[in-house]
Amino acid sequence: MVRDQTLQLLRQGYRWAGGLRPDPPTAPWAVPTRLLGRRAVLIGGPAGVRRFYDPRLRRRGSLPAPLKLVLFGRDTVHGLDNAEHHHRKALYLRVLTADAVADLGRCAEQEWQAVTRRWAGGAPVRLFDEAVQVLGAAVLPWAGIPMASAELPRRARQLADIVDGFGTPGRPFARAALARARLGRWAAGLVRRARLGQIHPAPGTALHAVATARDLRGRPLPARVAGVALLNFVRPTVAAAWYVAFAGMALHEHPEWRHRLADTEPDQGAVAAFAQEVRRRYPFVPVLAAVAREDQDVLGVPVPRGGLVVLDVHGTDHDPTHWPDPDRFDPDRFLAGPVDPDTLVPQGGGDVATGHRCPGEDVVLTMIAVATRTLARLDYTLPPQDLEVDLSRVPTRPRSGVLLTPTAR
Prior knowledge:
Number of domains: 1
Number of helices: 14
CATH architecture: Orthogonal Bundle
Helix content: 40-55%
Low-confidence stretches: none
Shape: globular
Distance between the termini: 65 Å
Strand order of the largest sheet: 1-2-8-5-3
Largest sheet: 5 strands, mixed
CATH class: Mainly Alpha
GO molecular function: heme binding; iron ion binding; monooxygenase activity; oxidoreductase activity, acting on paired donors, with incorporation or reduction of molecular oxygen; peroxidase activity
Mean pLDDT: 94
Enzyme class: oxidoreductase
Number of strands: 10
């Protein structure tokens, strides 16, 4: 009998799937295993991605309750299927239009300009911490949330605490759970105040959308559920701080790209390629999980009803078949021609409108691009520090958070 791998996944993080998949990876790979006491199969590669988003699989019940409740919240779109999922997903797509994402990008750019002016000639700063505050200060007002400027840092930190601790047992998880509870009460209160006319979020904003959202039967979403939806608009934007830290490290380690992107009007194709390579090269989610609706064959491995199908996200993004020398940071990969979307799944795969692909993908790419342009133009040095990336911790980032010493202008 195959041994249950749940503890190994918790201990090994991003390295876990690599110990199970073939070396070199086959195309695709499908490895029988056990997780959460259930029969499971680990799959990856483009064919694995396509199989993972097959309608014969569902999302409800695919994640351990503690992890799901802390990271996503209760009754969230991430755990819905079929008509419920499509209906709730449409809520996010209505708000996250191209124009709205561009507007959020401009908000973030203004925040970065303000904060870097304060850095000039000062003490070293930790890029990760600064990114959390910048992204929070940009996305919370953008979402239509009225709040005093003094409250912004606390809410941004709480949003980051959720992401930082959801996958790490012990104190980080406890801190994440506490932040989730506090933010949940706050967000539900915002929804109630909007419905009572005590605050007036502009139409088209996230707060207005969730406050006026209705379920499949035409009933208003419960305030708690609407609050969860609101947090799932703003939390992923703050989570882009992890990628911003990696982008800062990449600019340091690849000064040719720092120079290339430092122009006042940089090549937008190069900026976009850099942002994509940050998402591909540096890890965020190691795996994703789904549940078999019925007994079925998954790429040659029999999976019973209720069994788990686990997508190797990190392995797919580092598959040498599609990404030669995958651990090398090389944005030029994205300038050589179209990329098969099923080979790049840092935020999931499939169709964003009808499937479970993250609707905030363009937001994350925009946040990386804006931060990258800002950093490339900034005069700074990196003092000695520990830039090691611990692949056993989820999510991970450079240990130091990337310390920068701004130089006087």
